[in-house]
Amino acid sequence: MIESFGTERDDIQGSKFQKYKGKDGRTDQVGLIPFPDGKFFKGARCHFKERAFQCKSTGSKKEICCTHSYEQNRPFYRIATVVIVYNFVDKDGKQSLRDYTLLPWIFREAMYNTLKMSDKDFPLAAHDLKLTCSDEKFQKISVLPCKNSIWSGNAKLKEKVLKEAQPIFEDAIRGIGADLGLIDIRELLCVDEPGITDANANISLDDVMGATE
Ligand SMILES: [Zn+2]
């Protein structure tokens, strides 16, 4: 849709990808919201070069993303979930929920395994989590289960949250890693096209020198 406007608009900016990040020394209470298929996580093996992109290798064939030499040529899992981050206020000495934010949360294998452990004794569907960040840069986050789940324990809130989470699910999936083709991956990794090198090798220097005389 094409709009017409002068210089009065304040809202013309790229839609920044927002995701959950722990802040140094801060504890957030969050709840995990399952994707429409009922699962809490979506993930893919990825590499990182300037940006995260999906690994193209299969069990039987290793592709250039894994065989080329660069720092992150070993694929790792990037896993996405959607969290509701609660915002509490003190009310007569008691914490009450003021509002909340829904955000994609993307992490690697270690956090997945921490959540998996927590789920065994405190199922994620019925327990919120307290996330405490001790290192913002490396997103070192410890996880403690809460007694219950605020969002899913209240039918009205649950319905509202599930509705509002729909576009966030899409953001979370997009945030896992770019789905690049092999040609784009070669370009990103600066792998020379063998075809071009071969063509150059066929031209002898004498021919070039002769042509300039
Ligand atoms: Zn790969």
Identify the notable features of this structure and list them briefly.
7-stranded antiparallel beta sheet, alpha+beta, binds zinc ion, 213 residues, single chain, 7 strands
Can you count the beta strands? 7
Task: Flag low-confidence runs.
Answer: 196-201
Judged by helices, strands and strand pairing, the structural class is alpha+beta
Give me the Rg, rounded. 24 Å
Strand content: 25-35%
**What shape does the CA trace take?**
globular
Distance between the termini: 58 Å
- Order of secondary-structure elements: EEEHEEHEEHHHH
Small ligands present:
zinc ion
Summarize the biggest pleated sheet: 7 strands, antiparallel
Give the overall average pLDDT: 90
Q: Domains counted in the coordinates: how many?
A: 1
Helix content: 25-40%
DSSP helix count? Answer: 6
Note down, in words, how this protein is organized.
The protein is of the alpha+beta class and 213 residues long. The protein has one domain. The protein contains six helices and seven strands, in the order βββαββαββαααα. Strands 1, 2, 3, 4, 5, 6 and 7 form a seven-stranded antiparallel β-sheet that branches. The model is unreliable at 196-201 (pLDDT under 50). Zinc ion (ZN) binds at residues 47, 55-57, 63, 65-66, 75.
